[in-house]
Protein backbone atom coordinates (compact mmCIF):
# COMPACT_ATOMS: atom_id res chain seq x y z
CA UNK A 1 0.00 0.00 0.00
CA UNK A 2 2.99 2.31 0.45
CA UNK A 3 3.82 1.85 -3.23
CA UNK A 4 0.21 2.68 -4.11
CA UNK A 5 0.33 5.87 -2.03
CA UNK A 6 3.57 6.92 -3.71
CA UNK A 7 2.11 6.28 -7.18
CA UNK A 8 -1.05 8.20 -6.23
CA UNK A 9 1.12 11.12 -5.06
CA UNK A 10 2.91 11.11 -8.44
CA UNK A 11 -0.46 11.18 -10.18
CA UNK A 12 -1.72 13.98 -7.96
CA UNK A 13 1.40 16.08 -8.54
CA UNK A 14 1.13 15.67 -12.32
CA UNK A 15 -2.61 16.19 -12.54
CA UNK A 16 -3.72 15.17 -16.02
CA UNK A 17 -0.39 16.07 -17.60
CA UNK A 18 2.23 13.58 -18.80
CA UNK A 19 4.98 12.75 -16.33
CA UNK A 20 8.53 13.95 -16.88
CA UNK A 21 10.95 11.18 -17.86
CA UNK A 22 12.44 10.85 -14.37
CA UNK A 23 8.98 10.60 -12.81
CA UNK A 24 7.90 8.14 -15.50
CA UNK A 25 10.84 5.92 -14.56
CA UNK A 26 9.87 6.25 -10.90
CA UNK A 27 6.25 5.29 -11.68
CA UNK A 28 7.41 2.18 -13.57
CA UNK A 29 9.76 1.24 -10.71
CA UNK A 30 6.96 1.68 -8.15
CA UNK A 31 4.67 -0.54 -10.23
CA UNK A 32 7.31 -3.24 -10.53
CA UNK A 33 8.13 -3.10 -6.81
CA UNK A 34 4.44 -3.29 -5.87
CA UNK A 35 3.88 -6.26 -8.18
CA UNK A 36 6.94 -8.01 -6.75
CA UNK A 37 5.62 -7.42 -3.22
CA UNK A 38 2.25 -8.90 -4.20
CA UNK A 39 3.74 -11.94 -5.94
CA UNK A 40 3.74 -15.18 -3.95
CA UNK A 41 7.04 -15.74 -2.17
CA UNK A 42 9.00 -18.81 -3.23
CA UNK A 43 10.92 -20.87 -0.72
CA UNK A 44 13.86 -23.21 -1.18
CA UNK A 45 12.06 -25.97 0.68
CA UNK A 46 9.66 -28.26 -1.13
CA UNK A 47 6.09 -27.92 0.04
CA UNK A 48 3.12 -30.07 -0.85
CA UNK A 49 0.92 -27.03 -1.52
CA UNK A 50 2.00 -23.61 -2.74
CA UNK A 51 1.40 -20.78 -0.29
CA UNK A 52 -1.66 -18.66 -1.03
CA UNK A 53 -0.93 -15.33 -2.70
CA UNK A 54 -1.00 -12.31 -0.42
CA UNK A 55 -4.18 -10.24 -0.48
CA UNK A 56 -4.14 -7.71 -3.30
CA UNK A 57 -5.97 -4.65 -2.01
CA UNK A 58 -4.60 -2.30 -4.66
CA UNK A 59 -5.47 -4.17 -7.87
CA UNK A 60 -7.32 -1.87 -10.21
CA UNK A 61 -6.80 1.29 -8.17
CA UNK A 62 -3.00 1.42 -8.44
CA UNK A 63 -2.00 4.43 -10.54
CA UNK A 64 0.01 3.51 -13.65
CA UNK A 65 1.28 5.68 -16.51
CA UNK A 66 -0.52 5.28 -19.81
CA UNK A 67 1.23 5.23 -23.19
CA UNK A 68 1.44 9.05 -23.11
CA UNK A 69 2.81 9.18 -19.56
CA UNK A 70 -0.45 10.32 -17.96
CA UNK A 71 -1.26 8.52 -14.70
CA UNK A 72 -4.53 6.58 -14.48
CA UNK A 73 -6.02 3.77 -12.35
CA UNK A 74 -4.83 0.38 -13.62
CA UNK A 75 -8.43 -0.78 -14.13
CA UNK A 76 -8.81 1.81 -16.91
CA UNK A 77 -5.70 0.66 -18.75
CA UNK A 78 -4.85 -2.22 -21.08
CA UNK A 79 -1.42 -3.84 -21.07
CA UNK A 80 -0.17 -4.79 -24.50
CA UNK A 81 0.49 -8.52 -24.45
CA UNK A 82 -0.57 -8.89 -28.10
CA UNK A 83 2.12 -7.11 -30.12
CA UNK A 84 0.80 -8.57 -33.38
CA UNK A 85 -2.27 -6.32 -33.08
CA UNK A 86 -0.07 -3.22 -33.18
CA UNK A 87 2.60 -2.11 -35.60
CA UNK A 88 6.08 -1.05 -34.54
CA UNK A 89 5.15 2.48 -33.44
CA UNK A 90 2.49 1.32 -30.98
CA UNK A 91 -0.44 2.50 -33.08
CA UNK A 92 -3.06 0.24 -34.58
CA UNK A 93 -2.07 -0.47 -38.16
CA UNK A 94 -5.52 -1.60 -39.33
CA UNK A 95 -4.25 -4.62 -41.24
CA UNK A 96 -4.12 -7.44 -38.73
CA UNK A 97 -7.76 -8.33 -38.19
CA UNK A 98 -8.57 -6.90 -34.79
CA UNK A 99 -11.89 -8.73 -34.62
CA UNK A 100 -13.96 -5.61 -34.05
CA UNK A 101 -11.78 -4.02 -31.37
CA UNK A 102 -10.78 -0.46 -32.22
CA UNK A 103 -7.32 -0.65 -30.68
CA UNK A 104 -6.74 3.06 -31.34
CA UNK A 105 -9.38 3.90 -28.72
CA UNK A 106 -7.78 1.75 -26.01
CA UNK A 107 -5.72 3.37 -23.28
CA UNK A 108 -2.54 1.30 -23.13
CA UNK A 109 -0.13 1.03 -20.21
CA UNK A 110 3.21 2.75 -20.82
CA UNK A 111 5.73 0.29 -22.31
CA UNK A 112 8.19 0.97 -19.46
CA UNK A 113 5.84 -0.86 -17.05
CA UNK A 114 6.49 -4.63 -17.20
CA UNK A 115 3.50 -6.72 -18.31
CA UNK A 116 3.54 -8.84 -15.13
CA UNK A 117 3.39 -5.67 -13.02
CA UNK A 118 0.56 -4.14 -15.05
CA UNK A 119 -1.47 -7.35 -14.88
CA UNK A 120 -0.81 -7.89 -11.16
CA UNK A 121 -1.90 -4.33 -10.42
CA UNK A 122 -5.18 -4.65 -12.32
CA UNK A 123 -4.60 -3.59 -15.93
CA UNK A 124 -6.54 -5.68 -18.41
CA UNK A 125 -4.89 -7.85 -21.05
CA UNK A 126 -5.17 -6.81 -24.71
CA UNK A 127 -4.98 -10.48 -25.72
CA UNK A 128 -7.81 -11.40 -23.35
CA UNK A 129 -9.88 -8.43 -24.51
CA UNK A 130 -9.36 -9.53 -28.12
CA UNK A 131 -10.29 -13.15 -27.33
CA UNK A 132 -13.45 -12.13 -25.48
CA UNK A 133 -14.48 -9.81 -28.30
CA UNK A 134 -13.69 -12.47 -30.90
CA UNK A 135 -15.90 -15.00 -29.07
CA UNK A 136 -18.78 -12.56 -28.80
CA UNK A 137 -18.62 -11.66 -32.49
CA UNK A 138 -18.14 -15.08 -34.10
CA UNK A 139 -20.16 -15.24 -37.26
CA UNK A 140 -22.40 -18.05 -38.39
CA UNK A 141 -20.97 -20.15 -41.21
CA UNK A 142 -21.77 -18.91 -44.69
CA UNK A 143 -24.48 -20.96 -46.43
CA UNK A 144 -23.54 -22.92 -49.54
CA UNK A 145 -24.42 -21.72 -53.03
CA UNK A 146 -27.04 -24.48 -53.33
CA UNK A 147 -28.74 -23.34 -50.11
CA UNK A 148 -28.76 -19.72 -51.32
CA UNK A 149 -30.29 -20.71 -54.68
CA UNK A 150 -33.03 -22.55 -52.83
CA UNK A 151 -33.74 -19.64 -50.45
CA UNK A 152 -33.57 -16.70 -52.88
CA UNK A 153 -36.88 -17.37 -54.68
CA UNK A 154 -38.69 -17.32 -51.34
CA UNK A 155 -37.45 -13.78 -50.59
CA UNK A 156 -37.61 -12.31 -54.11
TrEMBL record:
<protein>
    <submittedName>
        <fullName>Uncharacterized protein</fullName>
    </submittedName>
</protein>
<dbReference type="InterPro" id="IPR052972">
    <property type="entry name" value="Sacsin_chaperone_reg"/>
</dbReference>
<dbReference type="GO" id="GO:0030544">
    <property type="term" value="F:Hsp70 protein binding"/>
</dbReference>
Amino acid sequence: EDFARAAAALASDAGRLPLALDRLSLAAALAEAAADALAPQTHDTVESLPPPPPPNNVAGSFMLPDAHGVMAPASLLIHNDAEWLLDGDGDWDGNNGSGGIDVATLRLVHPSVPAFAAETLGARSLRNLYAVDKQSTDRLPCPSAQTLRRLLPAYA
